[in-house]
Amino acid sequence: MLEIMLMVCIGALAAVMANLGIAVFNDGIRPIVPENLEGRMTRKELGVTAFAMSFGLVIGFGIPISIAGSIILIHSILLGSDIIGLALDRGKVKTTIAAIIGGLYGAGIYMGLQVVVDLFTMLPLNFVDAFNKVGDPVVVSFMVFPAIAIALQFGVKKGIIAFAIAAFARQLIVFTNGAELIKIGSTPVVLSPEGIALVVGMFLLIFFAMREKSEETNLSTLATLFTDRVARIKKHRWILMLSGGLVAAATNLLLIAGDPISLNLLAEGKMSEGGIAALAKAIGFVPLIASTAIATGVYGPIGFTFVFAAGIFAPNLGIALLIGALIIFLEIQLLTKLATFLDRYPGIRASGENIRTAMSRVLEVALLIGGANAADAIVPGFGFFAIAGFYLINEIAGRPIVRMAIGPVGAIIVGIVGNLLVLLGLYTP
């Protein structure tokens, strides 16, 4: 009951914040919300735009990844809550309706996910275990995203250097773990090779970005231009703090995760590695989320996403709730200083979009490989054939399904086809 109530509260609160224009999860929608708030876009147009930008990600990305890891990817809830909140007009009655629908949606995602997994286990060809292979390449591949971001922003040469250093760091940790070179007393310390490689890559990205300094004497462009919009975010700090606390608490219970990488690590019981991945992802997304929040006056329901790391590392539910709320409070209070910092280091601000692009490209490749491996484990031979054809036909058709979703969705389709083949007597597992 506690878990269901948490999901209801998260869904309801996120829908209300979207409805009132306080916070939305989709980074692409956040800059559009002020167009409606300031009367340049109708509510109907905003709702249609939100649906077009988010629905495909919920169905094709959030839910399949959640099924694969048996932990709910936050995109499944918050993208749907964006649609619910933005589709309804503001007003006491409509906002209350948004809260009710959002709460029901949160509960539905929680209960529906388990129902789907249970149904899969009842099929003649149970492909749940094989489907879990979707996430296997994600954890290892994700450590390369800082090098890709560096290549996009600072050139291929620096990207290759960063990739080589991160790869060396990974193999060095593999060696030290095997040789038990790092110990606390007599107890060997085992470090995550991928986690260390990710941290090294992020350090190099920040190093390169901070070398670009502004030559202008007035270093507070963001802070001065958008004072009113920052004040608007601060006005709603308490509801945002509640959202951050609830999400951190749900993460502590392993109900939700903020990204596919930490989700897969948590599903494997690797708590510290999952926390490091969540922390690295949050650091990488600060420039993008901060810039859009400062410029629009619309925040994110999970802030800079540090609340996920807080939930993972917190010793219990209560502390996770408090730390999550405190993190959002500190983020909001520091927005003005952060604006000045981003103006002083334009390379950091520009890195936000490159980080997002790099993450997307890495996930596209990793999930495609994972989906192909899962599909081939479900129906050997046919799986690779199906995923390859599915991917190429999707490209020729103009990409109606986002690339990140091809692997997971394709694996589910192969599982369904495999069951039909078993029923027809054309395939024996």
Automatic annotation (TrEMBL):
The keyword ATP-binding does not apply. InterPro entries: Uncharacterised_YhfT. The chain crosses the membrane at residues 47-74, 95-117, 137-154, 161-179, 191-210, 238-258, 278-299, 306-330, 365-393, 405-427. Keywords: Membrane, Transmembrane, Transmembrane helix. The keyword Phosphoprotein does not apply. This is YhfT family protein. It comes from Halalkalibacterium halodurans. The lineage of its organism: Bacteria, Bacillati, Bacillota, Bacilli, Bacillales.
